[in-house]
């Protein structure tokens, strides 16, 4: 997600919190803040927790802790939305449309796509290389029924 490339963990989390605070206060939002607030609004299960402020911003999420990282989850949604909007990798927008029809909402289609995206990013990080877009697309196409 290019707009987050230069941010550290604390800065990214602060962006989510600030966008949500401004949204709730009905203050003007930048386009990015609007995207952040929209994805948060679709996840009612995170709203109360996020509104705890510093507690939420400072929470560590480890595999041993067994808790899903809401910031990662929300960020993956945003990444998928950017991929669909730009159709990169080529074919992902059509696959997303098929999944949306199958599940009845774009949000549920994104949930189906989250795991393959997370796996692809984890694998790239583990191997120290760029994500394999073609392998990722193949996973999505399988889910979408090519």
Structural account:
The chain is an all-alpha fold and 146 residues long. It has 2 domains: 1-67, no CATH class; 87-146, no CATH class. The chain is 70% helix and 0% strand. The protein has 8 helices and no strands. The chain has helices spanning 9-24, 31-41, 44-50, 54-58, 70-86, 92-103, 106-127, 133-144. Helix 1 crosses helix 2 and helix 6 packs across helix 7 (106-127).
In terms of topology, how is this protein built?
Elements: H1 9-24, H2 31-41, H3 44-50, H4 54-58, H5 70-86, H6 92-103, H7 106-127, H8 133-144
Q: Kindly, what is the distance between the CA atoms of the first and last residues, rounded to a whole number of angstroms? A: 26 Å
Number of strands: 0
| Total helical segments | 8
Structural class: mainly alpha
Radius of gyration: 16 Å
The portion of residues assigned to helices is 55-70%
Which parts are unreliable, with pLDDT below 50 for 5 consecutive residues or more? Answer: none
Supply database-style keywords:
about 0% strand, mainly alpha, 8 helices, about 150 residues, globular, 2 domains
